[in-house]
Specification:
The chain is an all-alpha fold. It is built from ten helices and no strands. The chain folds into two domains: 1-107, Orthogonal Bundle (Rna Polymerase Sigma Factor, Chain: A), CATH 1.10.1740; 109-210, Winged helix-like DNA-binding domain superfamily/Winged helix DNA-binding domain (Arc Repressor Mutant, subunit A, Orthogonal Bundle), CATH 1.10.10. The chain has helices at residues 5-14, 16-25, 29-51, 54-70, 81-102, 113-130, 140-152, 156-166, 172-179, 183-205.
Length: 218
C-alpha cells in the first residue's frame, strides 16, 4: 500500500521517533543510536516473556535493530514508530519460536535471577488484566511465580497481544497493526487472554488461596 504524502507527513509531525527514523534513513548514525537507547530495554522485556531466555531476548532485540537498519532506505512513515518496530519484533519472535519448536526445546522458562527480575511487572500486568486481587498476602516471588506460569500458559498470539497492551500501552488499533490482525480479532484475543488468566489465577484469588474448592467457610 502506498501512503499519501499527507499521511506520512502527519506521522512525521506527531511522532518524534518517526522523525528520528527519517534521519536514520538519511544515514544519521546518532539518530539510530538514540532509537536503540529508547527501544532496546522495551524490546528485551517483551521478547523475554515470549522466548523465556534473557540471552536469546537480547539477541532477538539486536536482530530487530539490524532489520530496522537494513530497511532504513525504504522506510516510509505509515504508523507510529513503536507500532512498526514491534511489528518487526513480533515477526522475529514468531520465527524464533517456530525454530525452537522444531528443535523440540523445552518451553518451560528457566528459573534464574534474570527471570525473577522480569516476573514482578508480570504480576502487576496480570492483576490489571484479570481484575482480580488476592485476598491474602502472598510472598512476592510466590505470587509472581504463579502469575508467570499463568501467562506462559497463554498461546503465542494471546501473550503477544497482552504484552503489547500492558507493557507498551498500545490501543486495539495499534496492536492490530502490529500483529497484522483486525481490531475485532485483537479484542477477541485480549478477551480470551484475560479469561484464561482469570481461570488460572482464580484458585489463588479466593479467600485462603486454597485451590480446587477445598477452602473452608466459603
Amino acid at each position: 500500500m502506498v501512503l499519501s504524502d499527507t499521511t506520512a507527513k502527519d506521522y512525521e509531525m506527531r511522532d518524534p521517533d518517526v522523525r528520528l527514523m527519517l534521519q536514520v534513513r538519511d544515514d544519521n548514525a546518532a539518530a539510530f543510536e538514540e532509537l536503540v537507547l529508547r527501544y532496546q530495554s522495551r524490546l528485551i522485556t517483551v521478547l523475554e516473556q515470549l522466548v523465556h531466555r534473557r540471552e536469546q531476548a537480547e539477541d532477538l532485540a539486536q536482530e530487530v535493530f539490524m532489520r530496522v537498519f537494513r530497511a532504513r532506505k525504504t522506510y516510509q512513515p505509515g504508523a507510529k514508530f513503536s507500532t512498526w518496530i514491534f511489528t518487526i519484533a513480533n515477526n522475529v519472535a514468531s520465527n524464533a519460536l517456530r525454530s525452537l519448536a522444531r528443535r523440540r526445546e523445552s518451553a518451560v522458562p528457566s528459573k534464574t535471577s534474570n527471570s525473577d527480575a522480569a516476573m514482578i511487572p508480570l504480576d502487576q500486568m496480570a492483576k490489571a488484566a484479570s481484575g482480580l486481587m488476592p485476598t491474602r498476602q502472598l510472598d512476592e516471588l510466590e505470587r509472581a511465580e504463579m502469575v508467570r506460569e499463568a501467562i506462559q500458559s497463554l498461546n503465542e498470539r494471546q501473550k503477544m497481544a497482552l504484552l503489547l497492551s500492558k507493557f507498551e500501552g498500545m490501543s486495539y488499533l495499534e496492536i492490530a497493526e502490529t500483529m497484522q490482525l483486525s481490531t475485532q480479532a485483537v479484542k477477541s484475543l485480549l478477551s480470551r487472554a484475560r479469561y484464561n488468566l482469570r481461570m488460572s489465577l482464580e484458585p489463588y484469588m479466593q479467600e485462603g488461596a486454597v485451590p480446587d474448592g477445598q477452602q473452608a467457610g466459603h
